[in-house]
Specification:
The protein has helices spanning about 20-30, 40-60, 85, 90-95, 120-135, 190-200, 220-235, 250, 265-280, 305-315, 340-345, 405-415, 425-430, 460-475, 480-490, 495-515, 545-550, 575-580, 590-595, 610-635, 640-675, 690, and strands at about 35, 65, 75, 100-110, 110-120, 145-150, 155-160, 205, 240-245, 285-290, 320-325, 355-360, 385-390, 440-445, 555-560, 600. The chain is α/β, with parallel strands linked by helices.
């Protein structure tokens, strides 16, 4: 049965509710009667606090912390902090754990049965503690533990698009959690809980400011505020990063230029970065958006991205900081297919970046669409470290009112084969460095976090934050495993509950693709705010902001020809990938309209023609949401009332908006196909003109 008390979602997946299986509770209480955790470093004290909170909640009793070894004890530490850990034969496992990993083993010491959580560093200990508590929250057997875990990527980051005025660009969960006005003297408990949540899933870096950067963050007043946040994050193994405004030397430095090859400019950045490290000794570095969507950059001075990135890199290198230089670039002046521009600008620069520069590449070549092929930059720059950038905030995925579990989207990209070095050259191997021998490896996600009480607006938005951390730590985890973990920790371990919610989550992304952009359609959302459908829009200030640019529907068919007969975008992929996609008969249907302009009468694998298949997919998407509604309603007695009602209402919004997407898109595309919607389907309840006239001047997320 659900807890009698309401749950507002604030605790995320760290709820530490009493284990409700009496046999398992007894086993846990017998296995952990006390804790031995010597050491007083900030990270070890954080581990101690977490264990005290977690064990007392899960076991329903106080757990003592002792100074001597005892039977049925949890023994925690590093060989340096704990003589008991040092005495255990764990050198082989610890060598595999590295700097951030951990070892958890059931063993015997001085004829006493213990569970050891060991690591080489204090932060590794904290990660091990969170893993152990996860095992208990998900009701796993802890009698014969033998866990060795180490992260597969070195930099695991959350990127906040938060502005200094507390608006959040593409944010749908309230205002920014950073209250710059009250920092540095007032430390909100939320900052600490944010750090705990990130550490629990292995996130070790936070970019606190928007990529559309404001140079004020680099002033003395704001650096003191950033330093206060860094002090909160440090015990949890989290480094703080900032976004760098390329024109800052002009805007706050009073220089006349920001040319990256100008000696005065380079010295200004060196001095500024030295100042940052004086305030924040473990500052992580910069995330830079340059020469994209109006942002200043090196091309303003006829310099390359490498010139700009290396200027920052040289100033950061003595401090062991890094530069993450975003590859999201496209120019209004270029008539080229927008998707080709990032590759065209960055591929020639492979090997020309300093070794503390990583190019941060969106998962797809366009802009966080419901489905995109992997970016061709993955596999095209073997001499340059590449980070992947996902978007947790649902800018194109229904904002915070649609239940969309993103693990299948993330995994689809990670498992994609670039063929850079033959079959098996997956994007995941590019990212973890194993394909090209890169040491600088990383994964980032644009935050979906705000000051809503549950952090993410939609309760299920928390699952996408959780997913990012878990996949950045171990990209081999399956979507099902991540969903299972999250549901058990967030809602409970009842089998009907877990099975039903996991099923909903795993089907949700494909449902959303079907009711928004099936068969490879893309970027047909409302202009500017990206709320709802607007495939007819053609009034943008630049062609490639118009939905009509991307779907190219006409009387013959629909879709964007990116083969050799069209823009030849496919030439940017390896021959094996290109060969599959360029043939309309071998191109996976989920990408068909991404790469081909296809006749309305083209026969699909189902036997339906393209128009009929489009109808089928749009209606299937709506049907899937209605199934999710029924599944959720069946859980009323298994979920606390507050969250049950919240999700129920949000699913009703999602169903209404899915119908809106379906009806408006099919009615619009029907003006080109001149073919009927099959009579067996429910008829659209409004006209195309009704949908075209809808207007949303205050749709959220456009905060700048």
């Amino acid at each position: 049965m659900p807890s009698a008390k309401a749950d507002d979602g604030y605790r995320l997946w760290l709820r530490y509710e009493l284990v409700n299986n009496s046999t398992l509770l007894s086993n846990y209480r017998n296995a952990v009667t006390s804790v031995y955790l010597p050491g007083t470093s900030p990270s070890l004290l954080a581990a101690k606090d977490e264990l005290q909170m977690g064990l007392e909640g899960l076991l329903g009793k106080k757990v003592s912390f002792q100074n001597t070894l005892a039977n049925a004890q949890l023994v925690v530490g590093t060989p340096a902090s704990s003589s008991q850990i040092a005495a255990l034969p764990l050198s082989n496992q610890l060598s595999k754990a590295g700097d951030e990993g951990f070892v958890i083993v059931s063993t015997t010491r001085s004829q006493k049965k213990i569970i050891a959580i060991a690591a080489n560093t204090d932060i590794g200990v904290l990660y091990g503690v969170f893993h152990f508590l996860r095992l208990m929250q998900t009701q796993q057997n802890i009698q014969h533990l033998a866990v060795t875990s180490a992260p597969k990527t070195k930099y695991r980051l959350i990127d906040h698009w938060d502005n200094l005025n507390r608006t959040v660009e593409r944010g749908y969960a309230g205002f920014s959690i950073w209250n710059w006005h009250t920092l540095p003297r007032y430390i909100d408990q939320r900052y600490i809980d944010y750090a705990r949540a990130n550490a629990s899933i292995g996130i070790n870096g936070v970019v606190v400011t928007n990529v559309n950067a404001n140079a004020l963050i680099l002033t003395k007043e704001y650096l003191e505020k950033v330093a206060a946040l860094a002090n909160v994050f440090r015990p949890y193994g989290i480094k703080i990063y900032l976004t760098g405004r390329f024109s800052a030397p002009i805007e706050i430095g009073k220089l006349k230029t920001a040319d990256p090859l100008n000696a005065e400019v380079r010295q200004w950045w060196k001095n500024k970065i030295d100042e940052i490290y004086t305030n924040i000794p473990d500052f992580g570095g910069f995330l830079i958006k340059a020469n994209s969507e109006g942002q200043p950059g090196p091309q303003d001075y006829k310099r390359t991205h490498a010139d700009g990135a290396n200027m920052f890199a040289e100033a950061l290198a003595p401090h062991k900081g890094i530069v993450m230089w975003r590859a999201f670039v496209y120019s209004n002046e270029s008539p080229e297919d927008r998707l080709k521009q990032a590759y065209a600008e960055f591929k020639p620069l492979d090997g020309k970046f300093n070794n503390n520069v990583a190019i941060q590449v969106k998962n797809g070549p366009l802009d966080f669409q419901p489905r995109e092929p992997f970016s061709p930059l993955f596999g095209a720059m073997p001499k340059t470290p590449l980070f992947i950038e996902y978007q947790l905030t649902q800018e194109y995925l229904g904002f915070s009112t649609h239940l969309v579990f993103m693990a299948p989207l993330f995994k689809e990209v990670l498992n994609a084969d670039t063929y850079e070095k033959g079959k098996g050259s997956t994007v995941a191997k590019v990212l973890d460095g194993s394909l090209d021998g890169q040491a600088l490896t990383g994964m980032a996600g644009v935050a979906n976090i705000g000051n809503d009480i549950n952090w993410t607006g939609h309760p299920f938005g928390q699952a996408n934050w959780y997913t990012l951390g878990r996949l950045a730590w171990d990209h081999q985890l399956s979507s099902a495993q991540i969903a299972n973990e999250w549901v058990r920790q967030t809602f409970g371990n009842s089998k009907p509950l877990v099975d039903t919610v996991e099923k909903m989550m795993l089907s949700s992304r494909e449902a959303m693709v079907n009711y928004m952009t099936p068969l490879g359609l893309h970027h047909i959302m409302g202009y500017g705010h990206h709320y709802g459908p607007a495939p007819w829009f053609d009034k943008a200030s630049r062609a490639d902001w118009n939905p009509v640019y991307f779907h190219k529907a006409d009387s013959i068919g629909i879709g964007f020809d990116r083969t050799a007969n069209g823009t030849n975008y496919l030439s940017q992929y390896a021959p094996e990938v290109r060969k599959q996609f360029e043939d309309i008969n071998t191109c996976p249907e989920e990408y068909l309209l991404w790469f081909h302009h296809v006749s309305w009468k083209h026969t699909m694998k189902s036997g339906r023609n393209l128009w009929e298949e489009l109808c089928y997919r749009y209606y299937a998407g709506v049907d899937s949401v209605r199934v999710m509604q029924k599944e959720w309603n069946s859980l009323e007695k298994l979920v606390d009332k507050q969250r049950f009602n919240q999700v129920k209402m949000l699913l009703a919004v999602q169903e209404k908006e899915a119908v809106w997407w379906r009806n408006s898109c099919l009615l619009y595309f029907q003006t080109f196909s001149k073919m009927p919607i099959p009579p067996s389907y429910e008829k659209p309840d409004q006209t195309l003109e009704y949908y075209k006239n809808l207007n949303f001047p205050f749709a959220p997320g456009n905060g700048r």
